């Protein structure tokens, strides 16, 4: 049942992204930034945590989950370190995902060489 919940919630988030791509003139980059900001906003008003509790990876893997993770990290760091936590909390909370993206991106770039189309 957990897999079904994750699939439905993650699929709905992705469907919203696809609809925005198809029906608006927003660039993909702006849509991605919008998803991160929406994740932060929903966590600020305490709506995203219940969604994460319900759907698990279906809510944390999409980009809204990245915004949620940044906001949650800032909240924790501010409560522990005060004002300095605003600057360090988000990066500390997301550092594992960012490091994994860099490492795997580097490994893929070593394995697959790009070729020019001629």
UniProtKB/TrEMBL annotation:
Keywords: Membrane, Transmembrane, Transmembrane helix. The chain crosses the membrane at residues 6-22, 29-48, 83-112. Pfam families: SpoVAC_SpoVAEB (PF03862). It comes from the Bacteria. InterPro entries: Spore_V_AE, SpoVA. This is Stage V sporulation protein AE. It comes from Hominilimicola fabiformis.
């Amino acid at each position: 049942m957990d897999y079904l919940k994750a699939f439905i919630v993650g699929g709905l988030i992705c469907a919203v992204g696809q609809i925005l791509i198809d029906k608006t003139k927003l660039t993909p980059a702006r849509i991605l930034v919008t998803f991160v900001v929406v994740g932060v906003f929903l966590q600020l008003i305490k709506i995203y945590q219940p969604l994460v509790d319900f759907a698990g990876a279906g809510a944390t893997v999409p980009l809204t989950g990245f915004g949620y993770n940044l906001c949650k990290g800032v909240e924790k760091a501010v409560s522990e370190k005060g004002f300095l936590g605003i600057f360090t909390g988000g990066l500390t909370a997301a550092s594992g995902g960012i490091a994994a993206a860099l490492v795997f991106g580097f490994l893929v770039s070593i394995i697959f060489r790009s070729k020019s189309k001629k």
